[in-house]
Amino acid sequence: MRILCLGIIFVLMTQQVVAQNIFTKTYSAAQMKEEAALLKNIVQANHPSLYWYTSKAHFDSVYVQLEKEFTDGLNENEYRNKLAFWLNSIKCGHTVVRFSKKTAKKIQKNKAPQFPLLIKVWADSMVVYGNLNAQDTVFKRGTIITGINEYNNQQIIDSIFPYISTDGNSINHKNQVLSNSFAFWYTSVFGLDSVYRIQYINRKGEKQTSAIYPYTTITKIPNKKGADTSIIKTQPTISKRAMQLQVKRQLSFDTVNSIATIRLNTFTGGGLKTFFSKSFEQIKQFNSKYLIIDLRNNGGGRVSNSIALTQYIINHYFKVADTVVANGRKLRYGKYIRPFLPNWLALNFFSKKTTDGKVHFNRYEKHEYLPTNNNWYRGQVYLLQGGNTFSASTMFIGALKGQSNVTVVGEETGGGGYGNSAMLMPTIVLPKSKLRISLPLYRVVINPFYEKGRGILPDVLIPPSSKAIENGVDLKLEKVYEMIKKTN
Question: Is the sign of the CA dihedral 153, 156, 160, 161 positive or negative?
Fold first, then answer.
C-alpha cells in the first residue's frame, strides 16, 4: 500500500509553462456537462472524505455554478481549471486534476515562450529566486515583487489558489506549490503575455516598474559539415543510477560537530529500507550525537518506508493511524478507474467490513509497531519540514513530534496533521477529454487530537525571508546548527 507520492502530487509543478498553441482542441458545453456529471457520480460513489471539510449543499452549489460556466469552445486548460476549482471544494490534497497524457507530453516537449521569473510566494510576499534570462540585470535573486501587469500580489495569489488542492485549510502547501512552479500556474490562470510589466522594489528600497519579455529556449544545431563547437566527453564522477538515488536520498556527516544529516525527498523507490539500515549503521559507527532529517521536499510515498524510518527513532509502540476506512468493497464506475483490478483486490482482500458499515484497513489501525532493535538512534533529532512535506512524510513527523529528543523546525507541513485521504490512489480518466483525476480510496485519521484542517506546526517556526533568498542562506538549517551549538 502506498500514499500518493511526490511525482503525482506535484506533477503539474514539473511541467513547462503552458503555451496557448498547445490547446488547439476545444470542447462543447454539452460534452463538458456530460463528463462533469459522470465525474460527480464517480467521486460521490468512491471518495471517502467527500464531506469531511465541506457540506454536501456547498459541494453541490459549486457544481451547479460549474455547469453554468461551461460554454462552447473551452480548451483543455480552461476545462481543467474549472474542474479543479470545483473539486478543490472537497479540500483534499490528493484529489488533483491533471492534463491528459497526450497534452502532458506536448507540454514537456514544448519550446514556446514562457514567463521568465522563478518566484517564491508566502502570505502576500513574492520574491525572485531565479531568472531564466541570465542576462537580466534587474530581476536578480532576492528582488521583491509587488505586482504583475495590473494585479498586485494578493490579487494574483487569490486568483491562483482556488485551483491548487490542499488538505483542509492548509495555506502553506498552496504557497509551496505556487512557489515550485509559479510560471506554470500564472500562465494557466492569466495566460501568456507578449510583455509583462513587473512592479518591484529595487536595492535602494524604491518602487519601480520594468517590462520583461517571455523567455524562449533557443537550440543551436551545428552544421553537419563543420560544427563550430566541439564536444568534450568527460567521465562522470558517479554513475547515473547513483545520481538518481542522490536526488531521492542522501546521507552526509559533519564529523567536527558530530552531526549526521539525512536528506529524504520521497518515501518511494531508491531502496529506502536498505538505505535506512546502512545509514543508521554508519551513524552508530561515527557516534553522531545529532541527527538532522530534511523532509522539506518530501511529498510522501510508501507507508511501509515511513514506518521503517520511524522505527529507528521512536521510543515507544506506535500505530500508523487511528482509523483507515473506505466507503465499501465495490469500486464503482470501474471502467473509468485505472488501474481497476489491483485496487479492487486490495479493497476486498486487505480490508474488513465492520459494524459501522465501512471497510477498514485493520492492520494500519490496530497493529502496534516496535522501535527497531538494530542501530536504534538515541541522540538528538531535528526534523526539517515545510509546505512540500506531505502525506507519508507528515505521518512520519506526526508519530515523532513531542518525543523528548525530537525537535521539529521549519514551517507548517502541507499534509494534514489530523489526517488525509490516501493509501490507494487510482486515477479517473474521463472518456472524451482524457483528463486525469487522482482518486483516494481511504480516509486516514492520523491523530484525532490534532486540529482538523491544519498541517503539523513546527516546534521552532522559521518563516521565509527575502534577505535569506537574496543571499542564498538556508535559515532553517542555520537555526538547527545554532541550537546544537547552544546545546554543546
Answer: positive
